[in-house]
């Protein structure tokens, strides 16, 4: 691992190793995520795997989540691999696309959203 990889993160993304995530990789996965929001609050983290800022925000968010007593249901969307799903989220849930972005969904509606440095676990638990 190079010096820069140690500081900024290498090609591996920490979300690939972290079991806190359920992955959205299809329209059906998104549909199930929205359906789950009628049972309990869910959150979708939209992440650009090639963006340093997004990687940093993701890492910080994961650390916050690990420190919570009660773990929320978290979904992960790789924007580079699944941009069409991100577009569907923006259209179906009436939110502007941003990256990185956290969307908190309850009863099929976005009840909280944030991007960049404003993303925190507090948005889910409050």
TrEMBL record:
Domain of life, per lineage: Bacteria
NCBIfam families assigned to the protein according to its UniProt record, in alphabetical order: B_thiol_YtxJ
Name of the protein in question: Bacillithiol system protein YtxJ
Source taxonomy: Bacteria, Pseudomonadati, Bacteroidota, Flavobacteriia, Flavobacteriales
